[in-house]
Amino acid sequence: MKEQTTTLNQESLQTTWSLPKTVQIIGVILLGSVILYGTGFVNIAAVHNATHDARHSQGFPCH
Amino acid sequence: MLFRQIVFYALLVGILSGAVLTIVQTFQVIPIILAAEQYEGAAAEAEETMIPALHAHGHHATEEDGWAPTDGMQRTAFTAIANMLTAIGFALILMAVMITTRGTSWGRNLKFGWKQGLLWGATGYAVFWLAPAIGLPPEIPLQAAAPLEHRQIWWLFAVLCTAGGLTGLALAPSPWRWMAPALLVVPHIIGAPHPAGAMFPDQTPDVSASLEQLAQQFIGAAAIANVALWLALGLTSAWAVQRMITSMKQAGLSDTDTKPGYSA
User: Fold this and answer.
1) Do A61 and B3 touch (CB under 8 A)?
2) A44, B18, B102, B199: which could join B83 in a potential S-S bond, CB 3.0 to 4.6 Å?
3) How high is the ipTM of this complex?
């Protein structure tokens, strides 16, 4: 009985273990940067044309 | 988990702030872009070099081929989506930084109310709009510009230096603090890349004069539209961050440590 409880506790420890906050924060900043790269920097014609007006007004360098 | 929480709130904050920006733009920024494109179409027709298929979407026909949204609803919809995505990207970075300040002596017991919202909105505006715009003012179509890659690198350089400089001013210990203002001015001393020659090459003097006026108006309009964006981003991000802090406290987690923890 006691053994079972220990196993259970270990399992729940593993499933709720999360990455250090620093790593999570860096992850968030990277995700934000990738999104901004896509909307503001990617130099593919279709992407450029779709985001054209947004890039111009937000001051991203454009064409 | 912190990551998931920030992403969730960034979607909310970004969609809302992007919508605010789109509404403001519709009244002042977009009409100027469309007015400049009128000249673009006219110039191209005069040269009779326009390919009919490209004429349909009017702008940059000589540079950019490929798919483009059709003018009207579709174009507005894509601008709105692009605005929202950009705002989501800004919100992710802004909130990550706001939460990080909880781990410093400056931000430990800070409550994120509307004043903090205004402060962070102003900071974001200074870093992501004002600093790059000093060297590379927002441009209208047809305006001559340096090679795209050079301008993109300078834009990024200005953003990073300004972010670093402001962080230094706020947080650096005194021997280092004097370096911070230097970091703020470095990109402007180096200077943004600009082409030599006329602002609107290939245009008659009359058209050039009108376009220069439009370009001036555009800078003002973009400056105001981006104030609206960062006001919305700052205020809603402060609200979101305060909610995250409250929920972490309720779950019995410290929101300031950076050690591994258990997720809520």
Assistant:
1) no
2) B18
3) 0.86
